[in-house]
Structure formats: C-alpha cells, structure tokens
Write the structure tokens for this entry.
Amino acid sequence: MSPLLSPDDDALAGEYVLGVLPLADRIRAERRITADPAFAAAVAGWENRLSPLNADYPDVPAPDLLPVIEARLFPTPPPARRRWFAPLAGALTAAALALAVLALLPVPPAPAPALIASLASAGQTLTFAARVDPDAGTLTLTRTGGDGPGAGQDYQLWVIGTEGVPAPLGLIRQAQDTRPAPGLAAGQVLAVSLEPLGGSPTGLPTGPVLVTGVITEG
Amino acid sequence: MSGDPVADLLLRVATGDRAAFRDIYAATSAKLFGVTLRILGTRVEAEDALQEVYTRVWLHARRFDPEKGAGMTWLIAIARNHAIDRIRARTDASRADDDALDTVADDRPGVLERLVAAGDARRIADCFARLEPDRSAAVQSAYLRGLSYQALADRHGVPLNTMRTWLRRSLLKLKECMEQ
C-alpha cells in the first residue's frame, strides 16, 4: 500500500474493486483513479489481490463482434494518399516537358492523418464521436448517444494535454458541430463536463466529467 | 517476451497494432464474455457490454503497465468495471433488477473449493476461509456477480451500514492475511 493513502481510502479502493459502491461513488472513484496515483496504485493492488477469484468466471464463446467494434473505432477507409501521385506519374511519362512544369509546382504537403476519439464513460448513455482535421485545425463533434444537458446546464468540451491540465474547447449546444481546435494531437484526451449554463466560470471543469476519450489516428 | 502473452498483445495494441487487437479479441473474448454475462445476466446486454469493453481496451491500452499486474487481470478489471457500472446504473433506477438477479443460480460454494485445488491461489482461499462464512460469501458474490451493498444487505437480512462494515473489515482482514 502507498504510504500516502489513508487506510480509509485504501478500503474505498477495495470497495471500488469489489464493485459494491453506488454509481455516483463509483464515478467519483473512477475520476480519482485518473487523478491520484496513490489511489490508482491501491486499486491495482486490490485487483491483483482479488484476481484469483477471476478463475470462477467461465469461458463463454462470444459472437464475433470485431467487425462492429472495428467499424466504431476505425470509421474511415485507409487514407488515399496515393491518389495525388498517380496522375502525376502518368504526366511524367507522357512528356519530358512535364518535368519542367513539375519543378515549378509547389509540392503539397502530405495530408496529415485524421484523428478520432470516441468519448464514453461507464454508466453513461452519453457518447460523442470526435473527428479532428489537423490540416484545417478543426474538430467535428457528434453526439452519438444520450441527451442534451438539462435546463440551466451546458456540456463543455476540454482537451487534457500531456501535462494534465484541461484547456477549454467550447460549449456543446448542438448534436453536431465543427469548431476551431488547432494543435490537437494523438494521445491527448478529450473530455466533456457538465457545467452551469454558459460554461465553467473558472476556466477549469467545475462539474462532473461525464465522458472522456483518447485521440487516436483514425 | 514476458511470459504473459496477453500482456505482450496489450503492449502491441498500445502502439496502434490492429492485428494485435484482433488477436487479443480471439484470445480473450470468451473469458470477458463470461464476465459480462455473469454480471449482466442476459446475452443481449452482455454482448453490448463486450463491444464497449473492447472499445476501451483499444483506447486505453496505453495505460496498461505489465509491472503492475497480468494482462488478463487488467482486461477482466475493465470488463467487470463496465458491467458493474451498467448494472449499477440500472439498479439505481430500478431496484427490481436486484431481485431478478437472485433467481440466477447461486455460485457461492464452488469457487473456493476450486481455488484450494489450484496451488497458486491457495493463499487467498486460506484467507477467505478465515472469514466468517456469511461474510466470505458476501465478498465473493459481490466480486463475482457485481452485487451492490443494498442487494447484499437484503440477501443477508442486515442493515446496509452493517453490510458495509462487514465488507470493509473483511477486505482489511483479507489484505492482512495475504500480506503475511
């Protein structure tokens, strides 16, 4: 056990792993796992300690859900980078003159791969799909499950950088919209929090973080 | 290679290796389906949960640290946590589902006997054996079936706070026993 964690918090980690807590306490514990390394270590300790019980879960052949899962994770066909080069190759063989023309053409940079994120959380019907266009510096966010916020509340989008500090990316008031979001990169985490109408007054999330997702190359 | 093939696959998934993702589904989906089915009770919901579980495996594989535990333990934790969150969301809204769960055959006895038979898990079995039988049973059915404090209190006919005290003390006893 970590010396930084009180016995009470260690027991809480055990209760979380055991699974007996009400949903609200579980969500709080899940947030703490991501924010508090000592608590996360205590949870991992309990997972290991109780893992011999896992032997009691039977193997039950599962249907092949991979196509559905992959369609969800990798929604785009492979990037079509070659298209730009193919006609060019034709032009090169067609006329030597093209070489001279080509020399004058600005070489377009290879398109950056699209980035995607699937925002979800345990116990939440609310889900979002995010698609980042790094070239345009925009993010398209689509609510793929759940309802809009209640009266007097707003959903607010955040990006959590590698340094762990959330930066606001604006309110979410439509089922789908595209917003400027320059500089997003794979590995960063997107999060949606529930805030008072108009968004967090502090510049940091004040309400519960409802869903999160890691940005990955699509 | 680490001697933990699931951990090796997870480390590859963490780099965005889609072939490793397919391999890990093939290698582990039966066990994780066993987990979601046991906790959620119906194939429809267990399959739905399994999709979400593997989506998270892909998205969160970078958090897996082979120094901290076995690959399968990490996967089962994701499956259990998601299934328990689901059932908790359901039962917080409607307690009736707790009662429905009770019609599922009880799995209390078998697990400890099997654990005693498996040498490497003998210690936890010995430690469970030192608990009072009803508390040992409560801890196990909480873990294996995802029963809530409320459901456990109802089953054992004790107030919720009593059940909470039982389980917290039982957890601490288990921990002390296993650290000996």
